[in-house]
Design goal:
This protein is of the alpha/beta class. The chain has one domain: Rossmann fold (3-Layer(aba) Sandwich), CATH 3.40.50. The protein is 41% helix and 11% strand. The chain has a four-stranded parallel beta sheet, sandwiched between helices. Helix 1 runs parallel beside helix 4 and helix 2 crosses helix 6. The longest helix is centred in the middle third of the chain and has 17 residues. It starts with 27 loop residues before the first helix and ends with a helix. The relative contact order is 0.18.
């Protein structure tokens, strides 16, 4: 296959090529946040899915990083880290320990970050394996907010105990 510059590119069946418009702007608040958080040893990337599993993982990541272990962990903006090579991606790249808190077995956040940081080896934790629930449920509206919060807390507490 001919590439954009005339060179031959080998396509691999196990990869997808993503055409992503380069960011032309940088959020100064995000960069200040990244600067303030860079000394923390554990970076947490997380599933941001709109399904039940993603919501539990997202809430668990927030609890972990902002309530249970804020002195040790930094919550990464997955969109910012994936779409531009600035402070958020630097936090992922430079962390002593990187936790990818995935909502399910698809592992979106770790696969996304692996696509922009060569050799990335996060510690993948699949949140939906850490709590009991009806696996036939998919939507956020299929579980009460209180149940979602309970599962998120259970996941966050298990991860915090490993820190």
């Amino acid at each position: 296959m001919k590439g954009c510059c005339g060179s031959k590119e080998k396509q691999r069946a196990d990869y997808e090529l993503v055409k992503l418009e380069r960011a032309t702007q940088v959020c100064p608040m995000c960069e200040e946040y990244a600067q303030r958080q860079k000394s923390k040893p554990v970076a947490v990337v997380c599933c941001e899915g709109a399904c039940l599993r993603g919501e539990v993982a997202r809430q668990a990541a927030n609890l972990l990083c902002h309530s249970l272990a804020p002195e040790k962990t930094v919550r990464i903006c997955l969109g910012g880290a994936f779409t531009k090579d600035t402070g958020q991606r630097g936090l992922v790249r430079d962390a002593s320990r990187l936790i990818a808190l995935e909502g399910c077995f698809i592992n979106c956040s770790s696969r996304m970050m692996g696509g922009v940081i060569d050799g990335l080896t996060p510690e993948v934790i699949i949140a939906d394996q850490l709590y009991e629930f009806d696996r036939a449920l998919f939507g956020i509206d299929e579980m009460t907010p209180e149940e979602i919060q309970k599962h998120a807390r259970a996941v966050a507490e298990k991860i915090a105990a490993s820190l």
